[in-house]
């Protein structure tokens, strides 16, 4: 389908930051028409219709369009070299990360994507993609990440016809196939979708927070 964008770097876990910067590069140069960009992992449940309903809701707080997801506050820097998320002091020498969004899935406006791309080219790289892009670069750009209810960085049981979740993390391919089966078989009715819209409209006052 010619829909895979490739760049010249090794596709590894520690290079996720580079991959995300390249995503921002592509958006900046090739997707100026897009209003929003969502970055996700490949092991997540992503409810696109629910996010669309949220973004188009009349009660949606428009000032929070910029950068939103599962907000991580006062995340302590891991300084133990035996742990997965170890951060050497030469890469980041503070005790706490800036507030940032969990990398399993986050939303940003096109303008924010453009800004974060330009800022990322001027910052020393950190291999923790979510911390670097939505925390360090966002802070340098004066952009505040906001918490969006419905985006999680952990596993949760999901009823796809009635769920208020937008992003849920840690699904196997087999679980994802089973999860989407009701949609493929047209088993989700209009009532469920209408109820979901009502839930979103009623909850928009608490959906977003910079805490």
UniProtKB/TrEMBL annotation:
Instruction: Give the record's membrane topology.
Output: Single-pass type II membrane protein
Supply the EC number(s): 2.4.1.-
Pfam families documented for this protein: Galactosyl_T
Q: Where in the cell is it found?
A: Golgi apparatus membrane
Which enzyme class, named as a word? transferase
Superkingdom of this protein's organism = Eukaryota
Its main localization is Golgi
GO terms for MF: hexosyltransferase activity
Q: Which UniProt keywords apply?
A: Glycoprotein, Glycosyltransferase, Golgi apparatus, Membrane, Signal-anchor, Transferase, Transmembrane, Transmembrane helix
Q: Which terms in the GO cellular component ontology are assigned? A: Golgi membrane
GO BP annotations, alphabetical order: protein O-linked glycosylation
The entry sums up its family as follows: Belongs to the glycosyltransferase 31 family.
Q: What is the designated name of this protein?
A: Hexosyltransferase
The species is Cacopsylla melanoneura
